[in-house]
């Protein structure tokens, strides 16, 4: 479970954030971006949690706030959040499967248009950060632009086996969005479930 | 709706070229001088800069008067105020 | 021939539109806040390093550099200073705030300062 993914799927939830300068912020998450910049609504901000002479703590209530991701120290989420998001992923996974069954012909045709004969793993495209900055080596496989000279740094494909990638998919609980073969997909889903439960 | 146009920050800085500018860093340090130029990172060149350290209660202490031009890294710049120090 | 293509597409699109109700989404790359809705209103901007500035938002760019008119800086507890406790403010006027040092921005409208007594 990638942190940004978890966060993106907790929109609408209450959370508690501490900033690097010690300020704490409580509010309802409305949006997240790639850099963990956040927008919150119904915010209570506490700059200094030390009570003053009267034993009172100054709090600021704001309707909305935008926070820089780089200034966040940590975020406290609700306890059951991981379980909820996991269930969400599963239900989405099932949706995807159904859709793939319906459209399998189209999908396959589409995939064949890609010049992926050299790159058999492209169809395991799990797209956590589609076509964007690459966060780790795994994701290099998801680059659909398929331009090896894109200057993003080299891929090292030949170290990969399909088994490796299968394992990585399972470990990260991420859902591949395109499948070349239905069989492949079903098998994979079984494996994912066995890990998740 | 008031005013469709949006003032672009870098445009404002561009308009203060050859005028006095007050540059406030993230720390308690400030500079004033004549803005000669700047780049996209808002690295700044100022002329005849005066450098201040601000304190909460006292008046500002002048630390140093610089002659000639100075390249100020944009890294630590928090704010730029056209027109110089008030 | 072409008819089938024309018919097929809308059906597929409809399916796609229905599906993402509970879509599992990833984080966004584009701006998550529209500063346009704060334009010409009073905003409260906190900067890294501890500065707090309020004023009327007159302009902005995609890097979140801001143009703030009638800016007032509240000097309190800069990181490398002892917090005097007593807030001082100074007027800066028309100010450009660097987007790189922006820590948070929020509209002043609808905000309140409240005091809660702590009983522990």
Automatic annotation (TrEMBL), chain A:
Subcellular location per the Swiss-Prot or TrEMBL entry: Nucleus
Start-end of Low complexity biased regions: 90-150
Disordered: annotated span: 90-157
Membrane-spanning parts: none
PROSITE patterns in the record: SM
Listed GO CC annotations: Lsm1-7-Pat1 complex; nucleolus; P-body; sno(s)RNA-containing ribonucleoprotein complex; spliceosomal complex; U4/U6 x U5 tri-snRNP complex; U6 snRNP
Keywords, alphabetical: mRNA processing, mRNA splicing, Nucleus, Ribonucleoprotein, RNA-binding, Spliceosome
Record-linked CDD domains: LSm4
InterPro entries recorded: Lsm4, LSm4/Sm_D1/D3, LSM_dom_sf, Sm, Sm_dom_euk/arc
Sm domain mapped to chain residues: 2-81
GO MF term list: U6 snRNA binding
Gene Ontology BP annotations: cellular response to glucose starvation; deadenylation-dependent decapping of nuclear-transcribed mRNA; mRNA splicing, via spliceosome; P-body assembly; rRNA processing; tRNA processing
Family that this chain belongs to: Belongs to the snRNP Sm proteins family.
Primary role: Binds specifically to the 3'-terminal U-tract of U6 snRNA.
Subunit record text: LSm subunits form a heteromer with a doughnut shape.
Protein name listed in UniProt: LSM complex subunit LSM4
Origin species: Tetrapisispora phaffii (strain ATCC 24235 / CBS 4417 / NBRC 1672 / NRRL Y-8282 / UCD 70-5) (Yeast)
Gene: TPHA0K00740
From TrEMBL, chain B:
Localization per Swiss-Prot or TrEMBL: Nucleus
Pfam family, one: LSM
Record domain Sm: where: 8-86
Biological process per Gene Ontology, one example term: rRNA processing
Subunit record text: LSm subunits form a heteromer with a doughnut shape.
Family: Belongs to the snRNP Sm proteins family.
General function of this protein: Plays a role in U6 snRNP assembly and function. Binds to the 3' end of U6 snRNA.
Annotated protein name in UniProt: LSM complex subunit LSM5
Organism: Tetrapisispora phaffii (strain ATCC 24235 / CBS 4417 / NBRC 1672 / NRRL Y-8282 / UCD 70-5) (Yeast)
Classification lineage: Eukaryota, Fungi, Dikarya, Ascomycota, Saccharomycotina
Gene: TPHA0D04330
Automatic annotation (TrEMBL), chain C:
Chief location: nucleus
Gene it is expressed from: TPHA0I01310
Keyword RNA-binding: yes
Identification of the protein by name: Sm domain-containing protein
Record key words, sorted: mRNA processing, mRNA splicing, Nucleus, Ribonucleoprotein, RNA-binding, Spliceosome
GO molecular function: poly(U) RNA binding; U2 snRNA binding
Any one GO BP annotation for this protein: deadenylation-dependent decapping of nuclear-transcribed mRNA
Residues covered by region (Disordered): 1-26
UniProt record similarity statement: Belongs to the snRNP Sm proteins family.
Database matches in InterPro entries: Lsm7 (IPR017132), Lsm7/SmG-like (IPR044641), LSM_dom_sf (IPR010920), Sm (IPR047575), Sm_dom_euk/arc (IPR001163)
GO cellular component annotations of the record: catalytic step 2 spliceosome; Lsm1-7-Pat1 complex; nucleolus; P-body; sno(s)RNA-containing ribonucleoprotein complex; U2-type prespliceosome; U4/U6 x U5 tri-snRNP complex; U5 snRNP
Domain Sm: 30-111
CDD domains: LSm7
Compartments reported by the entry: Nucleus
Basic and acidic residues composition bias: residue spans: 9-26
SUPFAM superfamilies from the UniProt entry: Sm-like ribonucleoproteins
PROSITE patterns: SM
């Amino acid at each position: 479970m990638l942190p940004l993914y978890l966060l993106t799927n907790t929109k609408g939830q209450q959370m508690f954030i501490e900033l690097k300068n010690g300020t704490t912020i409580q509010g309802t998450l409305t949006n997240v971006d790639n850099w963990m910049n956040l927008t919150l609504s119904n915010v209570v901000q506490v700059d200094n949690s030390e009570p003053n002479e009267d034993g009172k703590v100054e709090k600021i209530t704001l309707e909305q706030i935008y926070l820089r991701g780089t200034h966040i120290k940590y975020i406290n989420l609700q306890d059951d959040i991981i379980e909820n998001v996991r269930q969400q992923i599963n239900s989405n996974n099932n949706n995807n499967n159904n859709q793939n069954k319906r459209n399998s012909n189209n999908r396959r045709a589409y995939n064949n248009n890609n010049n992926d004969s050299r790159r058999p793993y492209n169809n395991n495209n799990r797209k956590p950060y589609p076509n964007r900055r690459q966060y780790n080596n795994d994701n290099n496989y998801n680059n659909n632009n398929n331009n090896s000279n894109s200057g993003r740094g080299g891929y090292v494909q030949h170290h990969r086996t399909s088994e490796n990638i299968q394992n990585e998919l399972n470990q990260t609980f991420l859902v591949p969005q395109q499948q070349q073969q239905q069989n492949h997909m079903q098998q994979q889903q079984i494996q994912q479930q066995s890990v998740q439960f | 709706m008031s005013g469709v146009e949006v003032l672009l920050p870098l445009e404002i800085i561009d308009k203060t070229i050859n005028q006095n500018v007050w540059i406030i860093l993230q720390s308690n340090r400030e500079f004033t001088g004549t803005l000669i130029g700047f780049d996209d990172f808002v690295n700044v060149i100022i002329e005849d800069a005066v450098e201040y350290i601000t304190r909460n209660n006292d008046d500002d202490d002048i630390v140093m008067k610089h002659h000639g031009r100075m390249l100020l890294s944009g890294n630590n710049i928090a704010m730029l105020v056209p027109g110089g120090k008030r | 021939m072409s008819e089938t293509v024309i018919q097929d597409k809308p059906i597929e699109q409809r399916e796609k539109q229905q599906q993402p109700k509970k879509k599992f989404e990833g984080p966004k790359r584009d701006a998550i806040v529209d500063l346009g809705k704060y334009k010409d209103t009073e905003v409260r901007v906190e900067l890294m390093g501890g500065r707090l500035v309020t004023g009327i938002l007159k302009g902005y760019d995609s890097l979140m550099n801001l143009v703030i008119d009638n800016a007032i800086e509240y000097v309190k507890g800069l990181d490398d200073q002892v917090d005097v406790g007593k807030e001082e403010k100074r007027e800066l006027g028309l100010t450009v705030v660097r987007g790189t040092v922006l820590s948070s921005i929020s509209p002043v409208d609808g905000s309140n300062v409240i005091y809660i007594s702590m009983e522990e």
